[in-house]
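User: Let's play a game. I give you a shape written as tokens, and you guess the letters that built it. Ready? Here's round one.
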């Protein structure tokens, strides 16, 4: 089910059936939807699993209002917090929650944010250079585009956008300043990319816009701590699921989950002395991707990767090495 057109957040949740099924067997209690958005995943969780309630977190006040309106018939099982997801524990404390049955992170930007030109996220809809998920924060895309020096611009476009022409784009941006709108920026970026490269890989400005959005909102900086907080707050048997949409996000999710799964650099034939403690097991050894049908029906699902871990008690063997949990048949699928 999608949000109604009247609420302005008509967003199609990615991998809805798969995410809903993942939480079927978690203990009774609260699941934190750390990126509530339009509330699509939360609606499915609440309707499918009567033993769960949801704490929805979102830094976008418009998204939060839309979700609250959409889920008003389930208000007794929904609590919300207007925070960024790195304030995970603080959001729990807002409602007196000390432990949870799981957490869901649907990273990146939502369809309504992209589709509203006034939010300044998209190269397809003209608007001011904004890109703030939290409209109350003072820092915007204009500060990055018109304020960073050439070297720093090139760095973030390369690191956060995987853009091989980052240097050329940064030089073009400096030459075109001041840049006021998303269409102006898209035109500058496109003109900086060699013509043969423009013909493949989607819109030429896609990667640069992604990089600037990540920089404005500090998305990759806050993600590791947010994931660690989720793992720490989850009871044994609970699950943490993350949908990521580009390689930088997925690398962080993979790394933090590996640490929680007891990744150890010590020699295999010696006791662990690095302090690694296993607190989760991988539910899947590799990330799950959307079906071909979903990717065809929803172009924004095409790059999605779903990683999931399940919380276990943190224990060690008497020799200091980690106690390995029983293998999960799903992990090998």
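Assistant: Ready! My guess for every position:
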């Amino acid at each position: 089910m999608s949000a109604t057109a009247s609420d302005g957040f008509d967003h199609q949740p990615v991998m809805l059936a798969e995410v809903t099924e993942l939480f079927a067997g978690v203990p009774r209690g609260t699941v934190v939807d750390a990126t509530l958005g339009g509330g699509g995943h939360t609606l499915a969780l609440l309707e499918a699993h009567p033993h769960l309630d949801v704490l929805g977190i979102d830094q976008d006040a418009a998204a939060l209002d839309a979700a609250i309106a959409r889920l008003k018939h389930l208000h007794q099982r929904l609590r919300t917090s207007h925070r960024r997801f790195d304030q995970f524990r603080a959001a729990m404390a807002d409602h007196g929650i000390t432990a949870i049955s799981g957490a869901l992170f649907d990273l990146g930007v939502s369809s309504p944010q992209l589709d509203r030109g006034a939010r300044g996220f998209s190269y397809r809809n003209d608007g001011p250079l904004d890109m703030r998920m939290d409209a109350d924060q003072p820092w915007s895309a204009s500060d990055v585009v018109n304020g960073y020096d050439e070297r720093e611009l090139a760095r973030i476009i390369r690191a956060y956008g995987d853009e091989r022409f980052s240097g050329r784009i940064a030089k073009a941006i400096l030459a075109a300043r001041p840049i006021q709108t998303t269409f102006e920026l898209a035109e500058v970026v496109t003109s900086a990319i060699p013509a043969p490269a423009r013909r493949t890989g989607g819109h030429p400005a896609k990667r640069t816009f992604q990089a600037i959005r990540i920089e404005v909102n500090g998305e990759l900086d806050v993600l590791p701590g947010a994931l660690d907080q989720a793992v720490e707050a989850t009871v044994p048997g609970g699950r943490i699921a993350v949908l990521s949409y580009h390689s930088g996000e997925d690398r962080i999710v993979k790394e933090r989950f590996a640490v929680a799964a007891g990744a150890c650099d010590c020699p295999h034939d010696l006791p662990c002395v690095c302090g690694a403690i296993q607190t989760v097991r991988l539910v899947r050894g590799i990330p799950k991707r959307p079906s071909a049908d979903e990717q065809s029906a929803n172009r924004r699902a095409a790059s999605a990767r779903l990683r999931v871990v399940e919380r276990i008690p943190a224990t060690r063997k008497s020799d200091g090495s980690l106690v390995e949990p029983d293998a999960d048949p799903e992990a090998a699928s």
